[in-house]
Amino acid sequence: MPTKLILIRHGITNCNKEKKYQGFLDTDLNAKGKNQARLLHGKIKQEKIHKVYSSDRKRALQTAKIIFESKRITKTADLREMHFGIFEGLTCAQIMKTHSRIYKRWFKDPFSVTIPGGENLHCFKKRVINAFRKITSHNYNKTMAVICHGGVIGIFLTHILKTKDFWKQIPRPASITVIIFKDGKYIRGEQYG
Which of 81, 83, 119, 149 is catalytic? Predict the structure, then answer.
């Protein structure tokens, strides 16, 4: 039996709806996000989950508690979204008004530009990969659910697929991405939602 990671991006928040960068902000799910989590509960209830991990941000924890109402959830700060520094809490339009030069450079090549006050993408990637390695090594031949953020899943997929196309790897809110760990390698499985 291979080790299986079921990566779930949290349900939608008002910041998602307003297209604001959330990062480390501790935002709640909105009504639609809670409903999305309830729908995910229905989709995933047949799956035999051995352990549930979640980012320690409210939006991820709330999603995890709705989907896995009777399971113990292990909070992991290393599964937090990337810290967006001076962009946190702002929309693209607001950032373009105040920080357009750095924003355009970062958006074009996020691996070579660090947002002032934010997390470097290489450091973020290292943090996320280490978190998934720990989860995998403690749960060999088991199935884990990991509730986290779009950037976390996206950066992990860039590692697995050996690509730098970070933006294309970010899944939609309340989506599921399956990763198999077999013969010492992570393999991307199906993605839905």
Answer: 81
